[in-house]
Amino acid sequence: MKNLKRISFLVLLMTFVISCTTMKNDANAVVTGKVDGIEAGKDGYTAKITTDAKEVYFATISIVNVGGPQNYKQLKIGDVASVKGEKWKTEEENHIKVTEIVSVK
């Protein structure tokens, strides 16, 4: 009986640990695609980026998150941009909090 309780506890613990590790956000993701829309915000903006695989990402770009005004760039509709940051997904949308604007063409 003691062994059964121990095994059950270990299985429960392992399930919890595995579920917590799979819920982590991707902190160093890179998204590359065409800018299809811009929505102005308080200290930055949100750019709608569509990748070649037709995935849509809402990239939050702010002066604070990119490390100051020297690293901040204003993207324009039609630009092809590569951004790096923390990626996460809501029920229906992909998001990325941009920490670096890698390239703009």
TrEMBL record:
Protein known as: DUF5666 domain-containing protein
Keyword annotations from UniProtKB, A to Z: Signal
Position of the signal peptide: 1-24
Organism: Flavobacterium nitrogenifigens
